[in-house]
Design goal:
Layout lengths: L2 H14 L1 H4 L6 H25 L6 H22 L13 H4 L1 H16 L6 H22 L4
Bound molecules: heme C.
Length: about 150
């Protein structure tokens, strides 16, 4: 398996765990940040499917997914600012102990989303790999590994 394929597989796994996770979340701030992450997960999955050729590379849909990613990335600092908790939350306390690093990672994700290039499947795969690194990097430090 080459590196791009591997990265895309990881992305699909990250995106797929989304839908099930947040039924029954009571805290509204936790729900809002999980909803934003779910939207990020879905958009990532759409672009990953296009990069793999599972669905056609559709320019307008790709742009919409890119916008979902960049807009939600820009909201991450506001969404996580309040250290709200919920039994279903996967957020680690390190977020608020190392806030500037966390917020910086959101910014890096936003830049990677804006840099997505859907000229063709090749450019999309390459730029998706950079995006995927920003998801994994942040989750590794700040999200419970389930
Ligand atoms: C700045 C840090 C950060 C970045 C960047 C980030 N995430 Fe997250 N993500 C989190 C944290 C923290 C949680 C756990 C939130 C909670 O449960 O309260 C999370 C949760 C999720 C969830 C689960 C949502 C749910 O419903 O429980 C998905 C899916 C997800 N992220 C996908 C992604 C993808 C895909 C990317 C990259 C395109 C990404 N994330 C980038 C920090 C980040």
């Amino acid at each position: 398996m080459n590196r791009t394929k591997h990265a895309l597989t990881i992305l699909t796994i990250c995106a797929a765990t989304a839908a099930l996770a947040h039924g029954g979340v009571k805290d509204p701030d936790v729900k809002a940040r999980m909803d934003a992450m779910s939207a990020i997960g879905k958009a990532t999955q759409t672009l990953g499917d296009m990069a793999r050729g599972k669905i056609p590379l559709h320019q307008a849909k790709a742009r919409m997914a890119r916008d979902t990613l960049s807009l939600n990335a820009a909201k991450i600092p506001d969404l996580f600012e309040n250290p709200a908790t919920d039994p279903k939350s996967e957020a680690l306390p390190a977020i608020w102990e190392d806030w500037s690093d966390f917020a910086g990672r959101a910014e890096t994700m936003e830049q990677a989303a804006l840099a997505l290039d859907f000229t063709d499947r090749g450019t999309l795969s390459t730029t998706m790999r950079d995006l995927g690194a920003t998801c994994g990097g942040c989750h590794k430090r700040y999200r419970i590994d389930k």
